[in-house]
Design brief:
Length: about 725
């Protein structure tokens, strides 16, 4: 394929995505426009329905107020009631009719008092009887008056005295005020607003109220609006062209208030945008292809000439070519340098072979390293099992301990060498250690990443425990951990999915991120935190998308003394990632940043004869502390709770108190207060050391304020504990 063709294809590859992106934007904009249209029409329908309910309620209130008129009590005063009813009904543009429960009219303000009254129609009689039987205010459907031949609506209410329906008072009035209500909405040109009753009769409509009020609306409108109290529909709902329509049912009347816009009117702007885009896209493609053809010819002509010159006899130098492209001259110069480059290529090939040999040596080293790690581990594991079985005699047990000690020493050396090699390959990773407000840090990450979730319509929920911190670590690295895990979950969660984040305190800080995404295959799950797991091509094809990011997470979390693991029920079942970080405690990163004694290294300081009272509710910790101190010469006494420690202190008269803070019934703060009070009365000095899993600054300050002299956070090195007790004993 010629270079000119490549240039045309390159141009197309550049322009076509832009055009497609523009089409996508238009489609997206179209959906937004229609969504905005629907929302606006729904809001208008709701507002009109509320206004209708307000007006109808005013009329109902007027009718119900008249039913309580004192002129209808005892002997009826029709003359005064006539004046009162005429005044009220005129305010609504209608008149008042007072009938007995059978439907016979007694008073009609549209006629002079005492004049002959019209005989009610069967429909009127039925309505009167219904109101009398139902004993509540009634709003009729729109009707056409038998005499006036004009549309009207009736609001009727029973007149109840002494628990009996004496009369029925109704207000017939023309629905013109509802038409005015529609007109006040100031709808866009070409739009329609209407009110229909329960039978589909038009109560009000704009425009063309005179032509439609009192008539039945189309069956499609009546059927669709009967399905629900509110909705948005499209189609041939009304008389005329197809429309978009929003409707809302009135609470007071059961009528339907609707707002409609012609489909052609709404879609015209959209069609114009699409047409303009299509025309512009075709023109842009044609122009781009033409420019690519012209520029391609200018570029390819000198290259073709240079290629023709290469077909001849070899020469010391190539003839100059006329070109406006500097790269063509660079090509000529590059060809002249080909021979020199060939020599350099030979040298590079030799270097490559040397590098491959070094790589094989590295692989061999890793194989040896694996062997050297597994061999002592196998011996250690086997002898530990034998010791636990209890079937070894004294000599065999001593031999087992020697083997275990030798194996452990060997493993420590190998691991130290491996860490040194890792620092050489990857560079020494240094952390800026400080107290980090983990809840605030996580909240900041959630808010920074929330927009990317919202763009993909992913629900992102977070629940943060303000007590899940602080932690001791590097704020930037911890932020990287949260961003990697949360971003990974959002990345592999499809649109309309959900991602949840929880930060809770359960001794340590637990960060739990769950998603409804693609999940993790069972074969990959144990390996997702391994570095360079995707370097194998087959693995890459099978588990695309999972790799170095999670390896970095594991590396950083472990540097902070925490742990991370993943759970998934399988592909398509989502995944859950859990990061556990120690709250305030000295973590693995502290050990890397500050040189500390190797665990188990004996200390030269002694506690011979020092009496130490250890108050600790955890039996394993209590035994460990007592054993460590006893091996340094201390006389130890132990108590499993604060109450026992308080009662034991006067009996054993300790020189130093080592006490936990969090204990059942009474905590360490109460214990040190009580023991210090006894010591003061007895006239003895009793220094106290707090040994606790709490490591927050406020916990430390509180402990020192109530009487503790030294504050140590778990876990603690045995040598550090001994040194602290020695310092207290020497006071």
């Amino acid at each position: 394929m010629k270079l000119r063709t490549h240039l045309i294809l390159l141009t197309l590859a550049t322009v076509v995505p832009v055009v497609l992106f523009a089409v996508g934007l238009i489609v997206y904009h179209t959906r937004l426009e229609r969504s905005s249209l629907e929302r606006g029409m729904r809001d208008t329908a709701r507002a009109l329905a509320l206004a209708l309910d307000r007006d109808v309620n005013d009329i109902k209130t007027g009718v119900e107020t008249l039913t309580a008129s004192r002129y209808l009590d005892g002997p009826v005063d029709l003359a005064h009631f006539y004046e009162e009813a005429a005044t009220v009904s005129k305010g609504f543009g209608g008149w008042a009719v007072l009938s007995d429960p059978s439907g016979r009219q007694i008073l009609n303000t549209s006629r002079p008092l005492g004049a002959a009254l019209p005989i009610p129609t069967m429909a009127s009689l039925e309505m009167m009887r219904s109101v009398a039987a139902g004993r509540k205010t009634f709003v009729s459907n729109v009707f056409i008056g038998t005499a006036s031949r004009q549309p009207g609506v009736i609001v009727a209410a029973p007149v109840i005295r002494d628990g009996q329906v004496r009369y029925v008072l109704d207000f017939p009035f023309p629905p013109t005020q509802f038409t005015k209500l529609m007109q006040e909405a100031s709808l866009s040109r070409g739009w329609t607003a209407l009110i229909t009753d329960g039978d589909g009769g038009v109560v009000a409509r704009v425009p063309d109220a005179a032509a439609f009020v009192g008539r039945k609306e189309g069956e499609a409108w009546t059927t669709e609006t009967a399905r629900s109290d509110e909705g948005f529909i499209k189609g041939d709902m009304l008389r005329g062209p197809s429309v978009y329509a929003a409707y809302r049912r009135s609470r007071e009347t059961g009528w339907v208030v609707g707002v409609a816009a012609p489909v052609k009117l709404v879609d015209a702007g959209i069609r114009r945008s699409i047409l303009a885009l299509s025309s512009g896209g075709v023109l842009l493609l044609a122009l781009a292809c033409g420019l690519a053809f012209v520029l391609g010819k200018r570029i390819t002509a000198p290259i073709v000439a240079l290629a023709d010159s290469l077909k001849g006899e070899p020469a010391a130098s190539l003839p100059p070519v006329q070109s406006h492209v500097s790269e063509v001259e660079d090509l000529r110069q590059a060809l002249e340098d080909a021979k020199a480059e060939a020599r350099r290529a030979e040298l590079a090939d030799a270097a490559r072979r040397e590098a491959e040999a070094a790589n094989r040596a590295k692989d061999d080293f890793l194989a040896v390293l694996s062997h050297e790690l597994r061999t002592p581990l196998n011996a250690t594991f086997g002898w530990v099992r034998m010791l636990r079985s209890g079937r070894l005699d004294g000599a065999a047990a001593d031999h087992a301990l020697e083997v275990i000690e030798r194996s452990v020493t060997q493993q420590v050396r190998l691991i130290s060498d491996l860490l040194d090699a890792s620092r050489i390959v990857f560079g020494r990773l240094e952390l800026s250690l400080q107290s980090v407000d983990l809840p605030a840090l996580v909240a900041g990450v959630v808010e920074s990443i929330r927009p990317s979730a919202e763009i993909r319509a992913i629900s992102l929920k977070s629940e943060l425990d303000p007590d899940a911190g602080p932690v001791h670590g590097d704020a930037d690295r911890l932020r990287q951990v949260v961003e990697n895990i949360l971003g990974n979950s959002i990345k592999f969660t499809p649109p309309n999915g959900a991602v949840s984040l929880q930060l809770v305190r359960n001794i340590d800080a637990h960060l739990i991120v769950s998603d409804t995404g693609r999940g993790i295959d069972a074969e990959l799950l144990p390996h997702i935190f391994e570095r360079f797991k995707q370097s194998d091509s087959a693995s890459t094809r099978e588990h695309a998308g999972l790799g170095l990011g999670l390896a970095i997470v594991r590396h950083l979390v472990e540097l902070h003394g925490g742990r991370v693991h993943a759970e998934s029920a399988g592909v398509g079942q989502g995944a859950t990632f859990t990061v556990v970080l120690p709250i305030g405690a000295t973590s693995a990163v502290d050990a890397a940043a500050v040189q500390q004694p190797v665990p188990g290294t004996p200390t030269a300081e002694r506690l011979d004869g020092v009496r130490v009272l250890v108050v600790e509710d955890d039996a394993d910790t209590r035994d460990l502390v007592a054993t460590v101190l006893a091996q340094s010469g201390a006389v130890t006494f132990t108590a499993a709770n604060a109450r026992d420690g308080i009662s034991m202190a006067p009996r054993v008269r300790p020189d130093v108190l080592v006490c936990d803070l969090a204990m059942p019934d009474q905590d360490g703060l109460a214990a040190v207060r009580a023991v210090k009070a006894w010591a003061a009365e007895a006239g003895v000095a009793l220094p106290a050391l707090a040994l606790t899993a709490y490591a927050r600054a406020e916990d430390r300050d509180q402990a020192l304020a109530v009487g503790f002299d030294v504050y140590l956070s778990k876990p603690v090195e045995p040598s550090e504990l001994v040194r602290a007790v020695v310092r207290l004993a020497r006071r």
